[in-house]
Design goal:
The chain has helices at residues 45-64, 71-86, 95-106, 125-160, 170-183, 199-215, 222-242, 244-253, 277-310, and strands at 10-12, 15-16, 20-21, 27-28, 32-35, 38-41, 257-260, 263-266, 269-273. By secondary structure, the chain is mainly alpha-helical. It has a domain at 141-236. α8 (244-253) packs antiparallel against α9. It comes from Dunaliella tertiolecta.
Length: 316
């Protein structure tokens, strides 16, 4: 005897609540899509896609805007990620707790909060896993290309102004690095006249327009270009940091199987049989995610700590 989770999805006599279907009523019926862990009736395929894109835009806003210098946002996100782990326990949670878990999913960077079943029927746990694993790589690639475009514009600007790297002293470069090192204790960049100014401070003072102007700003010196590179490439690291727990959760879920009458099914997607070619693909992707993202994060932190200790960057 296996209970549906939540139990309200199963109405008895092997039937599901309206909008649900599949083994253990774990899927959305045709004409419904999953949002906030509930199956809602489709309005239009386009509206479903727009809602999903808006959710992704919210994630980007949280990374680029709110989370950069606000420790309270970081604490809130960490708390929401903890709630998303607690929600995995197979318990009949009260309805109010289900609502809390759904809201927490928004701030825990779970990409399956809104799913595009209205636009395609072939969407399930595998697609959510691949999306969750690909978004950190997307941030790294996008920001890398953006930094490359800014660098080309910077070199063109230098050439048009008739300047070369020799026109800037190494002392200026050293001073730029010193300013950035000092900014760590102040939680914002001290170079207020350059692009190194914290994005959140610009956002608070002058709104989105100046924020966008700052984002598209082309540096005028090697020192400023260095600050742009550090500023831009910090964004994908922050995005990955915010989604670390969720990525770990998804990767582990791909290996969780449930035996039902002699057949193993994926616990978090009961319509998927375990140890089939499809499941092996999911396990391979999840294994790569565990090695690249989870293991890589620990290796990176250990290496950074080693370098900081070797360069005597820690205070006495």
């Amino acid at each position: 005897m296996y209970d549906c989770n939540p139990g309200s999805l199963c109405t008895g006599n092997y039937t599901c609540e309206v909008g649900y279907t599949g083994r253990m009523c774990a899927d959305c019926a045709e004409g419904y899509f999953r949002a906030f862990d509930n199956c809602l009736e489709c309005i239009s395929p386009g509206g479903n896609i727009i809602a999903m894109l808006c959710m992704y835009a919210l994630f980007v806003y949280l990374v680029v805007g709110l989370s950069r210098d606000m420790e309270t946002i970081h604490l809130l996100m960490n708390f929401c990620q903890t709630l998303s782990i607690i929600a995995l326990f197979n318990m009949q949670w009260p309805l109010i707790m289900e609502y809390i878990f759904n809201i927490a999913g928004i701030l825990s960077f779970e990409m399956d909060i809104i799913q595009p079943q209205c636009a395609t029927d072939n969407w399930g746990f595998a697609e959510n896993l691949y999306i969750q694993l690909s978004y950190p790589a997307f941030f790294f690639v996008f920001q890398g290309l953006w930094v490359g475009a800014i660098y080309l514009a910077y070199r063109t600007k230098m050439k048009m102004d008739g300047k070369t790297l020799e026109d800037f002293s190494s002392a200026d470069f050293t001073d730029s690095l010193a300013r950035r090192s000092a900014s760590g204790s102040q939680k914002s960049f001290t170079s207020q006249k350059s692009f190194g100014s914290a994005n959140m401070e610009v956002l608070e003072v002058s709104g989105w327009w100046l924020f966008l102007q700052n984002y598209f700003h082309i540096p005028s010196s090697p020192q400023e270009m260095n600050e742009v590179i550090l500023e831009k490439m910090s964004i994908p690291f922050m995005a990955f940091n915010l989604g670390y727990v969720v990525i770990l959760k998804y990767c582990l879920q791909a290996f969780s199987c449930l035996d039902f009458e002699g057949t193993s099914y994926l616990y978090f997607d009961p319509d998927t049989k375990c140890y089939t070619p499809e499941h092996f693909e999911m396990m391979a992707a999840a294994g790569a995610g565990l090695i690249l993202y989870i293991g890589g994060t620990w290796i990176m932190f250990i290496y950074v700590l080693y370098v900081l200790k070797k360069t005597k960057s820690f205070s006495e």
